Amino acid sequence: MIYFDNASTTQQIGSPSSFFNPSSPHSLGIKADRALRDARIRISSIFNCLNLQSSNYSISNTTPTFSHDDFIFTSGGTESNNLAILGFALSNIRKCPSLVFSPYEHPSIIAPINFACERKWAQGANINAIPQGTALITISQVNHETGDINNIRNLVSWIKENNPSAIIHVDGAQGFCKEKLCFDSVDMYSFSGHKVHGPVGVGGLWVRKGIPLTPQLHGGGQEKGLRSGTENVAGIIQMTEAIEFLANAIEVNHAHVTAIKQIMLGLAKLTDVTINTLGDNSSPYILNMSFLGVKGEVLVHALSEKGLFVSMGAACRSRKSSKSALELMGFSSEAAKSAIRFSFSHLNTLEEAATACELVSTEVKRFRKMKGFKSK
Questions:
Q1: Is the entire prediction scored with pTM above 0.85?
Q2: CA distance 21 to 139
């Protein structure tokens, strides 16, 4: 099996642990509560390690500049994004704030913004036309579709010139522990456990002090009242172990995955192939390619039968548009329909990449011959 669908879900690393309810008053509950606090402290050190403004990238020798109290544990990236967006909109509902985004963000960004706008809690705006006044700008650190890395620092500098009150939320699902970021430029940051070799069903949201959010889940008042419900302590500990490993090895892993992607780029030697990126700065962890004349869905299924697991280009789930995310980015309909996404991790090998290239090349040629495809 060659698993090149790591942008969807990664293989878990770290030892699973069992803990009790951290809200319980007995000794086992107190132990679980202490484990949660320890996880927050460790994660605050990880954020400091990943901060471009920090000169020390070793977790063990880093004095955190992030407060452990600023981290809210959630069920994953989707909940974190919803809490950031809807929590902000409801906290500023009297001002009907502008929620600014690009049309090809992840559905967990677009859907809550549409939800808020439909109920007139807020108004949506394109990131290329940011209005004056109270606003939340939400953008991905790394685009889930193409792997394009957004220059958050430059973007924030441009935004703040004309809109100094703007709040910046970054969806870090595809960038966390893979790319460093100037956290001094952002106010909220979402991350997801199963994108960084942690378990499914756990994630978090870092919220800078002073930013009001209205909770989306109500109950026992856990997570400073922002996310009620018993915390998934075992999952949080396993996620923390995984991201500590990744953060400490970020540069080594980056170089390794870059070499894997370079091998996969050899597929561009085939005729009628496009590499789908918006700019020159893309993550080595994601490679989106279109093999014209072959539907992406057909190719994905054929490759899975050969033991190579990849994914199709994700479609924008907006009810207001039938276009895919790639089409909204300006790629042709033909390129979008024939797109597949390879996504890698440090667990993949160069040998797997070479084998994958052979499999993809063989299948593309086979389908094109069956369809009588003529090169353009």
A1: yes
A2: 35
